[in-house]
Amino acid sequence: MEEVALGMFPTVFVRMTGRGGGVREFRALIDPGAEYCVIPKVDAFFLGFSEIANDDPTGQASNNLTFATYNGYGKAISIVMAQVELGRMSFKKVEFLALDIPQVTGFDVILGRSLLQFMKLEFDYPRATLRIEERTGELKH
Amino acid sequence: MSSTNGLSSEEEGVPVELSISEIRRRHKDRWVAVVVTKRDRNLQPVKGKVVAEDLDRFLLRTKLGAYRDICIFYAGDPIYLPLL
Asked: What is the interface pTM, i.e. ipTM, of the complex?
């Protein structure tokens, strides 16, 4: 992927394919400080992750995950997206959390390290550009 | 383009192709669902047809049952600017 405009926040359109073959595309916030990618629960459900609808408080799903934020703790169900496309780059089996972040942020999808670990990112704030390249080879972390 | 009743496609409520920047201008501060019609060399959407919009992003989803491939975004800047 070549350079894109950085804007007020680093964002990029990203396409996701879930279990059922449906596709949703979002303007996503790139957040290297986030461990996981995030998608709204309603869209996770549309993309075939029906376990999102299970809110039985007596059951603890194995993919139920507790996470820390700057503002406390939260819980969400982790899912594995079949395919994520960012420009000409395509990634299979990317881990997401099904979580509704406040809509006043203007974002409903976050790209965190579960996807960004496969990329080289260059933020150039003075020039207001963002460059994203696919990274191949061994991961160091 | 006018139809037989003299109304343009837009006046009839038929989605028309708009640039993403024009969508952001016309639907400012609303969540929009767009059928993408043109992409740039990075495969990022540059033009599309707005098929649904709403002030609330979840109410928007209730209007999208017929679409298997749809692009969703907020056509505005964050309402509450400081984000941490």
From this structure: 0.85
